[in-house]
Design goal:
2 domains; alpha+beta; disordered N terminus; six-stranded antiparallel beta sheet; four-stranded antiparallel beta sheet; Chemotaxis protein chec; globular; 8 helices; Surface presentation of antigens (SPOA); single chain
Amino acid sequence: MNESEGDLLTQEEIDALLAELEAGDEGGDLEPAEEAAFARLLGAVAGAAAPALGLQAPDTGASDADVEVVPVEEAHEALSGGALVIDVSGPVQATVAVGPGGVPSQAPDEPAVQAAAAEIRRALEEAAVGGVDLQAQWQDQPDLGKGSAQDPAVVARWGVQGPVAAALLREVRSLVEQSAQARQQAAEVPLAAAAAPAAAAAAAVQSAGRQAEPAEYPELDPAGDQAARAAIELLYDVPLEVTAVLGRTRRQIGEVLNLGPGSVLELDKLAGEPVDLLVNGKLIARGEVVVIDEHFGVRITDIVSRAERLKRMR
């Protein structure tokens, strides 16, 4: 045997190095911006799932989140006490697990799981991930998907009493990228609409083979403005139905038939969470409940943006 043969790597050592290199390409140290994006996205999911697990909902920001990349087998160990596993489908396929962080926990009942699923869906849609379909179920031994035990996964923790969220690194990155693309498209729509008339005018001039000339516009007619204002004022006395929605819930027929005096219905909103203000069934604002001379009222804290209203119309 040559002296150099003693320095050759075995096949097992080569496979181990390749696995390390592949994990290094997928993982590595997270950039601060990437870590913050992961914390916000996973925090939105964990915050929606926490009430069903009896945990304190975390802040969805990155300030109090501990985010790290670990092998998926370590992520499974971090959730060994059981977790709510959410399989997301739609624009992006992903599996996110939220649990108490290795502390054995009792499985939540089915109504609590379904309520958490509805809140998680809304949290992802508000994060601009787009329309998603998802299924949620409790697993005593959570599984983040098939693959190698060394696949990199993202684990986010929020304190000792807070939840732990975990997902495969590539899937979290796909969700964040989808969110960024959706936000960019939403920002480009007004710009494209504003640029369309100018682009059409330039194309018309170019097709005619003429040089562009300054446009002349007629002076505004004050009488026309007054007529338009008067036309709008005709609608001032049209009645509109304004509804404040404290919360919603879904129940089976048997549960509804069993309702009686003293029955308590748990709604999908948390204590202190803003209520929805609907005008003719359309969400226009959110606010907080107040009491005015022995009557309930709503103090508006947020007006729904035009982009959000358009997204709800799709």
